């Protein structure tokens, strides 16, 4: 799976204001900014992203996904 394919998959199920992906095709590191993360703890945010991947995690197309998840306000605060 390419970074573009993974990004499209995540964005098709989760509205993202910003997303970056780095990886080797199986092991990925993502930074994801979404308003859907408002009021959610980190584990809930990660579960929401994993839900977008569906069977891709179970079939090992995406072996590992490490992520940082932010709300738009949290992201804006980091950029200052």
Automatic annotation (TrEMBL):
What name is this protein filed under? Answer: Acid stress-induced BolA-like protein IbaG/YrbA
**Family from the record:** Belongs to the BolA/IbaG family.
The protein's matches in InterPro entries, at most eight in alphabetical order, are given as: BolA (IPR002634), BolA-like_sf (IPR036065), BolA/IbaG_stress_morph_reg (IPR050961)
Query: Which organism is this protein's natural source?
Result: Variovorax beijingensis
Its domain of life reads Bacteria
């Amino acid at each position: 799976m390419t970074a573009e394919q993974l990004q499209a998959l995540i964005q098709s199920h989760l509205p993202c204001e910003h997303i970056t992906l780095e990886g080797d095709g199986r092991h990925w590191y993502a930074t994801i900014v979404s308003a859907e993360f408002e009021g959610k703890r980190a584990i809930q945010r990660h579960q929401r992203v994993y839900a977008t991947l569906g069977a891709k995690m179970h079939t090992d197309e995406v072996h590992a996904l490490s992520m940082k998840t932010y709300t738009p306000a949290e992201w804006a605060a980091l950029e200052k």
